[in-house]
Amino acid sequence: MTVALHADIARLKRSNPEIFARPLLARLRDWSLWLVFLGLVAFALWWIDASPMRIFNGLSKLGMLVGLMIPPWPGDGFWDYCRAMLETIAMAFLGTVIAAVIAVPLGFLGAKNIVPNWLFHFTLRRFFDAFRGIDGLVWALIFVSAVGLGPFAGVLAIAVGDVMVLGKLFAEAIENVDKKPVDGVRASGGGGLHVVRLGVLPQVFPVMMSHVLYFFESNVRSATILGIVGAGGIGLQLSDRIRINNWQQAAFIILMILVTVAIIDAISRRIRARLV
Amino acid sequence: MSVLTPAGGLRASTTQQERLLSFEGRYRREQSTRLFWTLGYALLFFAALLASINASDFSLPGLVKGLPMAWNYIAGTLPKLSIATFGADMADWYWGLNYWLRLLLETILMGFAGTVLGGLLALALCFPASRNLVANGSVYFIARRTLEFCRTVPELVFALIFVFAFGLGPFAGVLAIAVHTAGSLGKLFAEVNENVDPRPIEGVRAAGGNWPMVMRLAVVPQALPNYASYLLLRFEINVRGASALGIVGAGGIGQDLYVAIRQFEYTDISAIMLLLIATTSVIDILCEFIRHRLIGHDLTGSA
After folding, report:
1. Which residue of A has its CA nearest to B273?
2. Does residue A102 sit within a domain?
3. Where would I find the ABC transmembrane type-1 domain in this sequence (chain A) (predicted)?
């Protein structure tokens, strides 16, 4: 039985080889792609100077740090941390609200079905895209230089960083609306403003709200570190504690961030589930 | 309907009127409860707004004064270019191009190495973190919590700690990116794993395969295109993130940007920012192209 089977397989292999073995060219291409990839990894590791000795030394130092962090202890700064945490959440909230308010008109301008001019649409969309490339922390750094230290710079950084992305998302939501209500409003004699208010807005409002909530959530995460460049909030406290080597308090602040982010996640998940 | 009942045309019509009345009453009640809730939420929103305005030292005069200042600052970073001396102006603006390109390459390499290392870690952790692949509850719990921890602690905090442990330079940055990437990719990979078709798993198990064989032969082949797609998305995000890590001394172009902003070298700021924007756009476009090649058009929507 088995012998016959093997013979069968051998015969099949001979009669149509392309099923059993991939063509040499395809195999060569795959192998060379893998080689290029591995070469890139090796080059990157060489560039960042990742020697085993260095890893070993760093790991032992890291172990020492973790030892210093235990147990996490707030010291006498507990209420200061709570205030800073509130400041962080306030920064995220205010920044998100400002970004959303500015992004609504931008979204309408960027939607193809509201402003049909091709050139305008293209320019505005590329403009939105370009600003995505800059990290929030870089914005924070710029605004700290422009308006001085403190949470106000953080609010501006979050607002400016988000406006473009929210504008793009809103524009996409508006482009995806069902055309029938719009035609209905127009057929019963509604003007441009009526179309937006009665035909488009009811459809896109839940989508926009869900985007805004999601951004608030992610802004709370990113606002926790804005203080590292001087934009106020819990990040300022954290970077201070790390700078003065107070690792117990640093660990406590990290735990505080974890708990706060988890709570905000849970709340906003609930609101989103009710909205959408 | 009620009009057709023979004996009580009058009675039926009153019922109809009563029904209309009761409907209107109900409608009004619904309206008012809705209004009540809307007002309640609006009130809650404004309370939160006021509280956050209070907590963040935000004031309208501050905004009115601050926005022109911020605008002047941003406008001040733009160089003076004139058509007559365009070449010289550009050369003056991008005086450090070679140096910046080197740093930019370092940033991209940091993003790349961090994504590869983090992806490997995520691949190792995603199988124990999938509900359908592990029978042991505590293994699942530990894997999930580990991923959550890696994901929630900000990348920059890891960078601060790693700079302390491994010294200044891109190595600490790569490690920070890798840890964060492992957390977020591990979760996404686990979700992919939980959605695979269970029949190949049963097939491998029935043919006598052990746990690693099941993962290798039944789960990975199904999930691989989605893994690759998420990995590419993460690479884009990581290059963007790597540009900020330099601010805490973890290498890359962020370090030079930080110096330029701190020392008010205005035109350098805009030059480096434009380079960053261009680089991230190019990487976005390239990754999208590769993603389309890898998984075709049917899966891009879900990714």
Report:
1. A134
2. yes
3. 85-268
Tally of CA atoms within 13 A in the half-sphere of A84 that contains its CB: 27
The answer to whether the beta carbons of residues A107 and A165 sit under 8 Å apart is no
User: Residue B169's closest CA among A47, A18, A242, A193?
Assistant: A47
Q: A–B: how many Cβ contacts below 8 A?
A: 175
CATH number for B98-294 (one of 1.10.240.10, 1.10.3470.10, 3.50.50.60, 1.10.3720.10): it is 1.10.3720.10
Report the alpha-carbon distance of residue B215 to residue B292 in Å, rounded.
26
Determine contact: B276 vs chain A, CB below 8 A: yes
Q: For residue B2, give the DSSP letter.
A: G
Residue B3 DSSP one-character state: G
Specify whether A126 is located in the same domain as A262.
Answer: yes
Q: ipTM for the complex?
A: 0.79
Q: What is the pLDDT of residues A112-124, one digit of tens each?
A: 877 778 888 888 8
A62 vs chain B: nearest CA distance in angstroms? Answer: 5
pTM summary value: 0.81
Structural domain boundaries, residue A11: 2-50
Contacts of A55 in chain B (CB under 8 A): 166
Residue B101 forms contact with A (CB below 8 Å)? no
A262 vs A137: CA distance, rounded Å: 22
| Residues of chain A contacting B287 with CB distance shorter than 8 Å | none
B158 CB neighbour count, 10 Å cutoff: 23
- Which residue's structure tokens are 């995603």? B126
- Give B234-273 pLDDT, tens digit per residue: 998 899 889 888 888 888 888 888 888 888 888 888 888 8
Largest alpha-carbon pair distance within chain B?
A: 102
Give the span between the Cα atoms of B4 and B76, in whole angstroms: 83
